[in-house]
Amino acid sequence: MVARHIADPTTLNNGVKMPWLGLGVWKTKDGEEVEKAIQYALRAGYRHIDTAALYQNETGVGNAIAKADIAREDLFITTKVWNSDQGYESTLQAFETSRKKLVLEYVDLYLIHWPVKGKYKETWKALQKLHKEGFVRAIGVSNFQVHHLEDILQDSDIVPAVNQVEYHPLLTQQEVHNFCKANNIQLEAWSPLMQGNLDNEVLVELSEKYGKSPAQIVIRWDLQNGVVTIPKSVREARIVENADVFDFELTTEDMANINGLNKNHRYGGDPDNFNF
After folding, report:
1. 168-214 tens-digit pLDDT
2. Closest among 103, 119, 135 to 35, alpha carbons compared
3. CATH, domain range 16-196+221-234
4. Nearest to 146 by CA among 263, 230, 271
5. Under a CB-based contact definition with an 8 Å cutoff, are residues 192 and 220 in contact?
6. Which of 32, 109, 123, 128 has its CA 20 to 30 A from that of 15?
7. By the 8 A CB rule, do 47 and 19 touch?
8. Where do the structural domains in the chain lie, given as residue ranges?
9. ∠ Cα 257 260 263 (to 5°)
10. Which residues are identified as catalytic?
11. Distance (Å, rounded) from C-alpha 161 to C-alpha 209?
12. Among the ranges given (2-6, 40-44, 81-85, 131-135), the one the predictor scored with the smallest mean pLDDT
C-alpha cells in the first residue's frame, strides 16, 4: 500500500497499526523546543512521535502529549532502551523510567537502540515480557543487521515488529530491507534526510520536475519503498513541508534513479563497528 494521507498506517506483524510518517526528536532539546515541535507536528496531522532515552527529552515529549487534545489511542509513541541499560532487569527498569517520564500507561513501540554484543538477547527477553504484560503494544529493534536479526529469531517466539535503521538514498541497506520484507519486519528510516545533505543532482532535478523540495522527494521515495520514515525538525514550516508528500507519486523510473544513488554511505554509526 502506498500512503495517501499523513495518518495512513502500515499494519505491523502483530496487527498493530503504525503511521507511515512520524516526527523524530533526536537532538531536540527537552522542554519548550521539543514541546513546540510536537505541537506543530500534531497540528499538521502527525500522530507518530519517535523519541529515545538517549535523547533526554522524554519528559518534554510526555508534556506535549498531555497538553494535546488528542485521544491517546490515536497517537503512536516510540521510545528506545539505551546501550548502557541493556540486559534483562536493567531494561525493565529503564523502560519504567521512560514510561514515567512520558507519563504514559503504555508505549506503542519499544526498541533496542543498538545491538550491544552479549546483551541484546537478554534485552529482547525483557521486551517480550513488557509486551506480554501489556506495557508495550509492539516491540522491535534499531540498527540491527541481518546477522543480528537471525540471532534474535533463533530462539524468540516474537518476531521484531520493526527494525529502525539509517536509511536514505546514499544508504539503501538492500540486504537488510530484503530480509525484513521476507520476515514481515517493518523497516523504518532514521536520518532519512541525510542530516540535511540533500544537494544531490538527481534529487535537485526531481525537485524541479515535481515542484517539490529535495526533502519531500526523499520522504516520498521512502514511503513508496514501503519504509516508515521519521524526519526530524523543530521548525514549523519544515515540519509542515515534510508532511506535504501525499499529493504526488514518483514514477518507477524516478524511484530507480534514486535507488541508484546508493553508496553505502553512513552519516551515523556502523552497527558492526560501534563504540558501545
Report:
1. 999 999 999 999 999 999 999 999 999 999 999 999 999 999 999 99
2. 103
3. 3.20.20.100
4. 271
5. no
6. 123
7. yes
8. 16-196+221-234
9. 145
10. 55
11. 36
12. 2-6
